[in-house]
Amino acid sequence: MKAEIIAVGSEMLTPFRQDSNSLYLTEKLNEIGVTVAFKTIVGDRKKDIAGAIKTALGRADIVALMGGLGPTEDDLTREAAAAALAIGLRRDASQVAALHARAATWRITMPENNLKQADILDGAAILPNPNGSAPGQWIDTTYSGYRKLIFLIPGPPNECCAMFDAECMPRLRAALPVRYIAKRTLKAAMIPESQADKLAAPIYTTFTDVETTILAKTGDIQLTLLCTKTSLEEAQRRVDELANKLEEVLEEWLYSSEGESLEQTVLDYLGFRNATLAVAESCTGGMIAQRITAVSGSSRSFLGGAVVYSNEMKTLLAGVDHELIERHGAVSQEVARALAEGIRQRTGSTIGVGVTGIAGPTGGTETKPIGLVYIAVSDAQKTDCLERNFRGARDRIREWATTQALDLIRRRLM
Amino acid sequence: MKAEIIAVGSEMLTPFRQDSNSLYLTEKLNEIGVTVAFKTIVGDRKKDIAGAIKTALGRADIVALMGGLGPTEDDLTREAAAAALAIGLRRDASQVAALHARAATWRITMPENNLKQADILDGAAILPNPNGSAPGQWIDTTYSGYRKLIFLIPGPPNECCAMFDAECMPRLRAALPVRYIAKRTLKAAMIPESQADKLAAPIYTTFTDVETTILAKTGDIQLTLLCTKTSLEEAQRRVDELANKLEEVLEEWLYSSEGESLEQTVLDYLGFRNATLAVAESCTGGMIAQRITAVSGSSRSFLGGAVVYSNEMKTLLAGVDHELIERHGAVSQEVARALAEGIRQRTGSTIGVGVTGIAGPTGGTETKPIGLVYIAVSDAQKTDCLERNFRGARDRIREWATTQALDLIRRRLM
Question: Could you tell me if A4 and A29 are in contact, meaning their C-beta atoms sit under 8 angstroms apart?
Answer without folding.
Answer: no
